[in-house]
């Protein structure tokens, strides 16, 4: 095929459909209409004289030829993006949209200010942060990276440690006067515990991990709502020290089970395993890692 202006026509659309496994998701990711994507793919297949995508009413799959072709296309497209950004980053001008998924009080209180500082350095860059705790589909949703905490599921994603925090068990004096003070994590099964995303609390007993399954009257994924319930005597809270704010200094609150508290709650930056990342993503990750290098609660 001779080199001409049409040689890359339809390639971005084809890569998007192959990664998103659908025309609608690809169109949403690219910010175009379904008909635009379909027209580009049809023109590409006609130009190549082969079928790249096997379409049914419900699914879109790559043909054997399409599988081979998309790998080569990714290499070429990544190379073009890298070549462009070598020039652009040399001028320190980042553009486009940085899409971040975040969860937890730590992300709101500490990660957001760090990203705001990054945004100030790059005024042409847009940053879109979606706060949720679900497992996102990086490709279909166009997420560049996510901020998550705790133990991670084994996956093909890359996880880099951002910060390590200490967990603290806290209860109001009124609750402890009424229900007693637990002296070992196993006694929590007899107490009302204030549950966030996970009802399995991890402690440390004589250097060994100890997991306790708890239950209670109040469950929410908001740390602020958990702390309010704790202050009102609804139960025992178990959160990172940095999430409590001034609650730890409240004379009506008491820290309990201190010898058993876990000191290993990790916050991670998670992103898909891609051969090449856009400069805006790579530099944002580097900025966060540098910001939290010496972070302490």
Which secondary structure elements does this structure contain, and how are they paired or packed?
Elements: H1 11-20, H2 23-30, H3 34-48, E1 53-55, E2 60-62, H4 64-90, E3 96-102, H5 105-121, E4 125-131, H6 138-141, E5 145-149, E6 158-165, E7 167-172, H7 173-179, E8 194-195, E9 200-205, E10 208-213, E11 218-219, H8 223-231, E12 237-240, E13 253-256, E14 265-271, H9 279-291
Parallel strand pairs: 3-4, 3-5, 8-11
Antiparallel strand pairs: 1-2, 5-14, 6-14, 7-12, 7-13, 9-10
Helix pairs in contact: 1-2, 1-3, 1-4, 2-3, 5-9
Protein name: Transcriptional regulator
Domain HTH lysR-type: 14-63
Family: Belongs to the LysR transcriptional regulatory family.
Question: What does this entry look like structurally?
Answer:
The model has no long low-confidence stretch (mean pLDDT 87). 37% of the residues lie in helices and 24% in strands. It contains nine helices and 14 strands. It is an alpha/beta fold and 297 residues long. It has three domains: 11-90, Orthogonal Bundle (Arc Repressor Mutant, subunit A), CATH 1.10.10; 96-164 and 266-291, D-Maltodextrin-Binding Protein, domain 2; 167-262, D-Maltodextrin-Binding Protein, domain 2 (3-Layer(aba) Sandwich), CATH 3.40.190.290.
């Amino acid at each position: 095929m001779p080199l001409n202006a049409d040689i890359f026509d339809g390639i971005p659309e084809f890569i998007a459909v192959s990664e998103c496994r659908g025309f609608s998701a690809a169109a949403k990711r690219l910010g175009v209409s379904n008909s635009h994507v379909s027209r580009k793919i049809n023109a590409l297949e006609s130009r190549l004289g082969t079928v790249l995508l096997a379409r049914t009413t419900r699914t879109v799959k790559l043909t054997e030829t399409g599988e081979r072709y998309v790998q080569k296309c990714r290499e070429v497209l990544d190379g073009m993006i890298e070549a462009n950004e070598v020039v652009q980053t040399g001028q320190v001008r980042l553009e486009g949209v940085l899409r971040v998924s975040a969860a937890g009080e730590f992300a709101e209180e500490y990660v957001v200010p760090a990203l705001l500082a990054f945004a100030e350095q790059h005024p042409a860059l847009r940053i879109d942060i979606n706060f949720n705790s679900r497992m996102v589909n990086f490709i279909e949703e166009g997420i560049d990276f996510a901020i998550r905490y705790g133990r991670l599921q084994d996956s093909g994603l890359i996880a880099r440690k951002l910060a390590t925090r200490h967990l603290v068990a806290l209860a109001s004096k009124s609750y402890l006067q009424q229900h007693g003070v637990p002296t070992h994590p196993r006694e929590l099964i007899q107490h009302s515990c204030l549950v966030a995303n996970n009802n399995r609390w991890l402690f440390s007993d004589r250097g060994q991990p100890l997991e306790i399954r708890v239950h209670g009257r109040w469950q929410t994924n908001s740390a602020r709502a958990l702390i309010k319930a704790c202050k009102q005597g609804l139960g025992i809270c178990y959160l990172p020290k940095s999430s409590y704010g001034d609650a730890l200094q409240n004379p009506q609150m008491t820290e309990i089970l201190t010898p058993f508290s876990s000191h290993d709650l990790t916050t991670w930056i998670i992103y898909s395993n891609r051969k090449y990342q856009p400069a805006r993503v790579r530099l944002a990750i580097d900025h966060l890692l540098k910001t939290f290098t010496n972070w302490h609660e």
